[in-house]
Specification:
Helices cover about 35% and strands about 25% of the residues. The protein is α+β, with helices and mostly antiparallel strands.
């Protein structure tokens, strides 16, 4: 089967490829073992693991490289064909970002990505293809492509926890990762931004944030980035995400001995849908409405562990750093929702003067403080 670049990669340094409804990630044996022994309670919050496969260079046409797998997979292929056909028929999807992302080799031997709207994705994936040309890293993990049915995927990658290295990391790696946490929001909040792409319907273009920008953010800039992303997602999507995060927190609070060092949360929604900012119960509970969907998944398990996993060190209790990150995210999302709700209510009041209306329509609300966030009307999650 044909392999192309994955155009919506926003984080990480391992280049991701795309094939028949799957994202292909360079194989890491620890991560492969983790997926193979995944606790069933975590399955609803992770991307579907579909095995492993080899990717080969099958040809070169006037400098353009042709990549393919050494076997066929039917796991997500049929569903992907249907989704891509629908996407191709949409008038909104005639832009460059919807064409397959390919790779070209220059005379110098350097590989460059073509049709790469996301510069970060193009850089990461060109390096992986260069390794393929040299005979390295031909094995990939196959994971479900959770944005395959989105016409304009808006994606945010959040690094979770206060520790970003595994027990098998070198002393230098431990030192550098510890410094990154201390110099970013990871140490204080248990979370930092490592990548973002957001579609603007008014300009019909994407904006991006990479991991270096995310690492330099303080608490206020991090909050402002979240606010911009989730204002675009909309009121009901954001409230639904909070509910899902609360369920995830309940599951992880009972995950004895699990540690998710250097893992991320990936959150995505379709920026092409015209979603009304409805606050009705029907809107919040309509889980089958694709326009109202928002997806959250745990990813990147190369340094994760739990009791009995391989010959790893055994930890006791829960992953407090990861739980801190979820608590920080929920708190900020609650403030964003309250800000959106207040803005909608204020804009609907005819008695307000024009001056007051303008003051209420500022693009960003007040950044979070150390004071506790107000409680919003979200039902307590029910964990099966």
């Amino acid at each position: 089967m044909n392999v192309a670049g994955f155009p919506h990669q926003v984080g990480g340094h391992f280049g991701l490829l795309k094939c028949a409804g799957h994202v292909l990630k360079p194989l890491n044996q620890r991560e492969l073992n983790f997926y193979a022994s995944m606790d069933p309670k975590l399955a609803p919050f992770t991307v579907k693991y579909c095995g492993r496969i080899r990717v080969n260079l099958s040809g070169c046409n006037d400098g353009q490289l042709i990549l393919s797998t050494d076997a066929e997979v039917n796991c997500c292929a049929l569903e992907s064909v249907v989704k891509e056909a629908k996407s191709a028929s949409s008038e909104d999807d005639s832009g460059e970002e919807n064409k397959p992302m390919t790779f070209r080799i220059k005379k110098s031997g350097k590989v460059e990505a073509e049709m790469a709207v996301n510069t970060w994705a193009g850089q990461c994936q060109s390096k992986v293809v260069e390794k393929l040309l040299k005979g390295y890293d031909k094995w990939f993990i196959m994971l479900e492509d959770i944005v395959s049915d989105f016409r304009k995927p808006c994606v945010i990658d959040l690094k979770m926890g206060q520790r970003q290295y595994g027990d098998d990391s070198s002393a230098q790696k431990k030192l550098t990762q510890t410094q990154k946490c201390r110099q970013s929001t990871s140490e204080e909040l248990g979370i930092r931004l490592v990548g973002l792409q957001l579609y603007d319907k008014s300009t019909k273009s994407y904006s991006f944030v990479n991991k270096y920008e995310g690492r330099r953010m303080d608490r206020v800039k991090f909050y402002n980035s979240l606010e911009k992303f989730f204002i675009c997602a909309g009121y009901s999507r954001t409230k639904r995400l909070i509910r899902e995060l609360q369920v995830l927190r309940s599951v992880l609070s009972e995950a004895e001995s699990f540690r998710f060092f250097s893992s991320s949360l990936l959150i995505a929604f379709d920026g092409a849908s015209d979603l009304e900012s409805s606050k009705s119960v029907e809107s919040l509970l309509d889980l089958e409405n694709p326009k109202d969907s928002i997806v959250v998944r745990m990813i990147d398990f190369a340094h994760s562990t739990f009791r009995g996993f391989l010959d790893d060190k055994v930890y006791s209790g829960m992953d407090d750093g990861y739980l801190l990150g979820i608590d920080s995210l929920i708190s900020m999302l609650e403030q964003i929702v309250i800000s959106q709700s207040s803005l909608q209510d204020a804009c609907s009041m005819p008695e307000l003067s024009l001056k007051k209306q303008r003051s209420l329509k500022r693009p960003y609300s007040t950044p979070p403080t150390d004071s506790p966030a107000p409680v919003i009307d979200i039902e307590e999650p029910v964990v099966a």
